Amino acid sequence: MGQGGEPREYKIKRYVDDAVSWIRKSVVCQRTGGYEVLLRFNATYEVIPGRDADKYDLLRLVDESGEDYLYPKSIFSMTQ
Q: Do 1 and 8 touch, CB atoms closer than 8 A?
């Protein structure tokens, strides 16, 4: 058992998952989806990792306003 009563394997997996989520991901805006002022069609945006966003099929990214907001995953495609 690790500290806090959780199995050591679970704790290691949680740390690995956290590290993987910090790998930089970029997306391309395929539809502005009613966010024409904040998103540009075909523009590339860097995704800010976060578990809460994934839970609801959202992406957190810095838009054209310079602030980070949540947007639906469905209006973006992942880049290589």
A: yes
Whole-structure pTM value: 0.68
| C-alpha span between 75 and 29 (Å, rounded) | 6
Say how far residue 50 (Cα) sits from the centre of its chain.
Answer: 6
Relative to beta strand 68-72, strand 76-78 is unpaired
| pLDDT tens-digit map of 23-63 | 678 999 999 989 999 999 999 999 988 778 888 999 999 99
Which backbone phi and psi does 40 adopt, to 5 degrees?
Answer: -110, 135
- The structural domains of the chain, ordered by start, are 24-78 (2.30.30)
